[in-house]
Amino acid sequence: QVQLVESGGGTVQPGGSLRLSCEASGFTFSRYDVAWYRQGAGEEREFISWISYDGTSTKIADSVRGRFTISRDNAKNTAYLQMNSLKSADTDVYYCRVVIGVMTHWGQGTRVTVSS
Fold it and tell me: Residue 74 and residue 26: Cα distance in Å, rounded?
């Protein structure tokens, strides 16, 4: 079955960097777009970034533009979110998402904490 597994979260100081990974299995990863979202406790899930199936097109939220970069390696069935210049406001659980037909699939999330 479709599975998305995020990793790479952790605790980092303000100004630091992390790279999140989203490893996919159970479907042909190279045929589908991937998006990253984040969600804080009691908040709506917020769109962060999107990448097309072949990696040629990307979108990024204004809140992270210039600091975060999305990429993918279809040979490894993995999407990435490089996060630089992290701020305390970036503290959240980060999720990757793939839509296949009418089904939306989410990973379990990886927690990012930015704190001094």
Answer: 14
Q: How far is CA 99 from CA 11, 18, 86, in A?
A: 29, 25, 28
- List pLDDT tens digits, range 33-61: 999 999 998 889 999 999 999 999 999 99
How would you class 86 by CB atoms within 10 Å of its CB: exposed for 0-12, middle for 13-18, buried for 19 or more?
A: buried
| No. of helices (H) and no. of strands (E), the chain | 0, 11
pLDDT in tens, 70-92: 999 999 999 999 999 999 999 99
Check if the beta carbon of residue 83 is closer than 8 Å to that of residue 19.
yes
Burial of 2 (0-12, 13-18, 19+ CB in 10 A): middle
Query: Which residues have a Cβ under 8 Å from the Cβ of 115 and sit 6 or more positions away?
Result: 11, 13, 14, 88, 91
CA nearest neighbour of 107 among 18, 30, 22: 22
